[in-house]
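[#protein-structures] MJ: dropping Polysaccharide deacetylase here for a structure pass
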Amino acid sequence: MRLNPQRLHNMQKRIQLTMAALLVVFLGFSVFPVQAAEGEGSSIQDGQEIYQLLKSGKRSIQEKSYLKPEQPTVYLTFDDGPSKLTDQVLDILEKEDVKATFFALGEEAKAYPNVVKRIVNSGHALGNHSFNHVYKDLYSDFQNFWDQIQRTEEVFSDIAGVRPQLVRAPGGTYTNFDAYYYYLLEQAGYTVVDWNVDSGDSKRPHVPVNEMIQTIKSTPLEHEITLLFHDGSGHESSVEALPQIIHYYKKLGYSFAPLTTEVKPKQFPVGKSKWSRNMSLSHFQTMLKETRQYVLAHGPIKNEPQDAIQRLVNQTKVVQEESAQILSSVSGVPLQIHVSAGSEFTLESTQYEVRGNQIELSLRVLIEKMGGQVRWEEATKTARAHYGVYDVEYELSTRSLRLYTFGNVVDTYWLADMSLQEGTIIVPLQKTIDLLGGRITQSLIEPGKREVSLAFRQFYGWNENSSFLKNSLFAANF
Ligand SMILES: [Zn+2]
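AK: finished. structure tokens for Polysaccharide deacetylase:
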């Protein structure tokens, strides 16, 4: 092999780079122990500063990035089990091909070890819900809570070989946790998860199925839903309601996934604790040392369902690409929308986002740009538009779009991607245009240039006459 000068130059360059890399590695190693020692020295001082911050009731928020699923997702969670009902829950989940999360109690896990094994082996997530669920033990002092978490973890580890990093506070964190509880559990490597939808199945004994379903249906939808259920004894009606609730979300376009530490946890704000506790600085420092040592001894442990993580990782790539695209759209590329027959309008870079291959924008902006108006009804969380013989109603709580003609419902569509952001309904452009009887005939999404062409069915008269589109499409009287 003959080395030409260019090749030789490249080789020299590569050698230089390798040397530089080795130097970095070498320096890195020699510097690291010094840094670690410094870190240790200052952590006691940190402890004091953090103690003061937490004492004021404020949480010390750790920066962490999470993986946002592309699909709207429901995380079903079942608390207080396992019990004799849990096998039925697992049967339903298997039949529906849905994965969930079980926040189990150490005490119950000891009584139903085979159910714990089945949960883990079926790819569901197992979470820690304390050992005995007795509030006055758990919330009298962090030490007690912490002891129960470890005790339960030993039970799970013995039975199924897992040490869950997900913790759910019995009764939820609100008015039970203070900033110390949150902070110390994070130091020990745990992720605390509350919920944003409560099935209401533990309001009182034996809540009827219909009431549960009504409660769920009346709760506003979000892109990620952590749904609270109970599979402890006495919750037969939760088991009975489960298939209907799964179907409800499936029909809205939701996927189901087990929780992992990569999912941004729903957490309630720190409220005023209803327990009188006194955390002294020295007690805090002892707890801080214990929790930090615990993580060194046991973690970080990854024993979450691997396929769920992989799926999220795949989705994250998409989301990261999306954020890159959103970034470039923020950096000032307007979106030009051509409507057939020569009408066109421009959306400023701040008026739309590109997610994946999908353009999302405010419903109001879209309709106003097309010459119409949107009327928003706060009480019913419904936006109404009217054009020709058609009325369109976007109902946010069910994420549905209803088409009416002469007051009769023609059709109902589900838009799982619809969301409310700072008082604005965000809708996907393509689906919305589809539903309005149009289609995207061309789209060009490139760095520096964004163009979309729309065509509407002749039936509506949209593509023939742009002034009709501007003036009559969404008549002024809605
Ligand atoms: Zn509970």
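MJ: nice. Residues 79-80, 129, 133, 170 surround zinc ion (CB under 6 Å).
AK: one more thing. The two ends are 78 Å apart (CA to CA).
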